[in-house]
Amino acid sequence: MFYLRCAPKEIKFDMTTTDVYITTVEMYFRLRDKHSTDIPGWSWAGTLDNDGLYHFWITVSGESINPDLRKQQGWYDVEFVGLNKVGNAVGRTEKIVDVISYAIDCK
């Protein structure tokens, strides 16, 4: 769980791959309202930092989420896409849903 206005305000994703062709990892997210059946589209969250040795990470803050996408109480769904050196997708995670909660205010 992470929040806009109280701690913790950030969430860190840290991963490694055994696929030697993955040189870049991009993160996508969607923020779904917990009290709605609406399923929004996916948004690009950013390119993960890496150490050049198949280790990737990114820190997401509640403030980095576009104000138009924020929900009072929502599910922060994510998916990671591994790219090769020419930018083609060569791997991806399962969509991680209903695991990470995001809220504007502390409850």
The count of β-strands is 9
Overall, the morphology is: elongated
**How large is the count of helical segments?**
0
The CATH architecture designation is Sandwich
* Sheet with most strands: 6 strands, mixed
- Tell me the helix content: under 10%
Sheet/helix structural class = mainly beta
Distance between the termini: 11 Å
Q: How many structural domains does the protein architecture include? A: 1
Compressed to H and E, one letter per element, the order equals EEEEEEEEE
- Contiguous low-pLDDT stretches (5 residues minimum) are none
User: The CATH topology is what?
Assistant: Immunoglobulin-like
Output mean pLDDT: 95
Radius of gyration: 15 Å
Roughly what fraction of the amino acids lie in strands?
over 45%
In short:
With 107 residues, the protein is mainly β. The protein contains no helices and nine strands.
Word description of this protein:
Strands 1, 3, 4, 7, 8 and 9 form a six-stranded mixed beta sheet that branches. It is built from no helices and nine strands. It is elongated. The N and C termini lie close together (11 Å). A hairpin with a 5-residue loop joins strand 7 (73-83) and strand 8 (89-92). With 107 residues, it is mainly beta. The chain has one domain: Immunoglobulin-like.
